Amino acid sequence: MAAASAPNPEALDGRRLRSERSRTAVVDALLELHREGQLRPGASQIASRAGVSERSVFRHFEDLDTLVEEAIVRQWARVGPAFAPPDPTGTTDQRIAALADQRLAIHDAVAPTARAAMLLAPDSYRLTETLARRRQLLDDQVAVHFATDLATRGPRDRAELTRALAAVASFEHVEHLRAGAGLDAAATRRIVVRTLTALLAS
What's the CATH number for 15-77? Predict the structure, then answer.
């Protein structure tokens, strides 16, 4: 009996490459649907957008929740530079402006994905942890960004003011102004700047 031929490395590499392309297409399709406001699309919608079969979706992902988790984590990795700390130099007014610009840029970059994440987080430990880490990262940036302004405050006042500043600059507050109140980016920026200024002047 003839010995079984060894697998062709090039064929194996080709299959792996096609599989990875298909997996990426599924993730990108879900992110596109999120950007269009469809936060819970079905497998058939995702497959149609990705140009693959519905069966292929579940060949790559155990279930839709697993797909959503990967899409959200991948999108936040892609927009990582938006989370870089704002410029900490200059006057208080300049630093307020820099923080406001950074937070609006973050909102523009991640809003559709963040909405889906917040919707699904109660049923996903991974998403809950990811959101918590992002919030802590941004809160910590506020404390560092305004360290000079906060240094002269007493411990209790400094802690409360830091929390207030972080709340005003949070994604949730910007989301409320943009999506909830229906304000444009310019109006939202003015409100964030005005509120941060008032808090630091108090």
Answer: 1.10.10
